[in-house]
Specification:
- The protein has an eight-stranded mixed β-sheet with strand order 1-2-4-3-5-6-7-8, with helices on both faces.
- The radius of gyration is 25 Å and the shape is elongated.
- By secondary structure, it is an alpha/beta fold.
Length: 316
């Protein structure tokens, strides 16, 4: 019998080793994929079901009379809670609906919203402050970052129209600002909007900035979360499109307020919308303030700017 060549004897263990390495690598990759998907599902669920922030102030702290109100979202599936704060003089000049941001409530902590409300009330404006679904004291268990909140805001418009005849404007912060724009595109009763620090398109914004909210690396988690969220929650982030909505708002006026030092939603989001209709839209770029902190950092200038804007809405 002829002896087996040495090279053949050596190749057998090497071949087994190669297969073992390939199988081990495949198993490791599969486990990493399963872990990544699992983490993405968990984080996506947490992002759309954030913990509620309790109300820790009421308008009477600022000497403001107020009425507790309840109304339905325009979808009729959620009861929403709020405060109606009447003008200090009669008749009121206008109704201003406040729309808060993501993970906040009607107080919009950090923006000194009740102080802003007092300034508006003292100048003859009614103010409605309310909680979006799954926020503050309102019903619901899902936060959709503008997709369903649009109907909550339209429900607030319906309540004001039924109870107070004066014209309506909306003052939105962050998610609430983007929601104000998409709602106004469908509701002609909204005569003007102050949009403080909005994003222009939810999907595009999240593609670039989701790590700010998820605390996960952009890859692979951002595409995984964005792919998982629609079937998981029924939310279509492509529908939260303020950049297109502003074309349907025009020629109604919008005042964009945004800080160049905003670390959550870049200034370019507001600039892209303002630039589409500069003849009717205004842009107030501030600095030295982080996300929706413009009023807290520049209170006097902020109040003067918005009061001037609301005053112009009343001119024929």
């Amino acid at each position: 019998m002829r002896p087996t060549p040495a090279i053949t004897r050596a190749s057998r263990p090497r071949g087994r080793l190669t297969k073992k390495v390939l199988w081990s690598t495949a198993v490791l990759l599969a486990l990493l994929l399963i872990a990544s998907v699992g983490i993405s599902v968990y984080v996506g669920w947490k992002l759309t079901h954030p913990a509620r922030v309790a109300l820790d102030e009421t308008p009477d702290r600022y000497g403001l009379a107020f009425e507790k109100v309840e109304f339905e979202s325009r979808t009729k599936d959620v009861a929403l809670q709020g405060w109606f704060i009447p003008s200090s003089s009669e008749p009121a000049k206008m109704n201003i609906i406040m729309a808060h941001g993501y993970r906040k409530n009607r107080l919009q902590t950090g923006a000194d919203t009740l102080k802003l409300t007092k300034s508006l009330v003292d100048q003859g404006y009614n103010v409605l402050m309310f909680d979006f679904r799954n926020s503050g004291e309102s019903g619901g268990e899902l936060t959709s970052v503008g997709y369903l909140e649009k109907y909550d805001l339209l429900g607030a418009v319906d309540w004001v129209k039924a109870n107070h005849p004066e014209p309506i404007a909306v003052h939105g912060f962050s998610m609430g600002a983007s929601t104000a724009l998409t709602a106004a595109a469908e509701e002609s009763a909204i005569t003007g909007i102050v949009a403080d620090s909005p994003f222009n398109h939810l999907t595009r914004y999240l593609e670039e900035n989701l790590p700010t909210w998820s605390n996960l690396p952009n890859f692979p988690f951002t595409p995984l979360i964005l792919g998982i969220l629609p079937p998981l929650t029924g939310i279509d982030p492509d529908q939260v499109d303020a950049l297109t909505a502003v074309d349907r708002i025009y020629p109604r006026p919008v005042l964009f307020i945004h800080s160049s030092d905003d670390h959550s939603i870049p200034l370019q989001n507001s600039e892209s919308m303002w630039a589409k209709h500069k003849d009717r839209f205004e842009m107030w770029q501030i600095s030295g303030a982080d996300h929706v902190k413009g009023h807290a950092v520049h209170p006097k200038e902020y109040e003067e700017k918005v009061l001037d804007f609301y005053g112009k809405l009343q001119q024929p």
